[in-house]
Amino acid sequence: AYAVDWVYDPVANIYKRNNGGVPHIDRNTNKQLTAKNIVVLTMIETHADDGYTDNEHLLYKTKGVGRANIFMDGKQIVGTWKKDSRTARTLLFDSTGSPIKFDRGTIWFEILPTDGIVSAK
Fold this sequence. Notes:
Layout: E1 4-9, E2 14-19, E3 22-23, E4 34-35, E5 37-43, E6 45-47, E7 58-60, E8 64-72, E9 75-83, E10 91-94, E11 107-113
Parallel strand pairs: 5-11
Antiparallel strand pairs: 1-2, 2-3, 2-4, 5-8, 6-7, 8-9, 9-10
């Protein structure tokens, strides 16, 4: 019900966010959420075991290394992410190990569990 997809607008060179099949609208601006760069990080997901019904709260392992999919300029870059400690920056690399150089503008991070599915058209 809350599947997210981003639709690339080549004229504006931005991505528009949909949530649950409808445009995701910012309540403050009443405009659809957009970003110049989309980063999808794959992380290990576990249940929080914090006493809530059905153990519904989730935790993600944000330290270590994992798969990354970066979208900008209508293209997909498959690479990796790395984060050494809780306070360290998350570093992003392409498939050759070179650091990602982002377009100027908003960078939006999405987190998926390791069995999550990323698809691009």
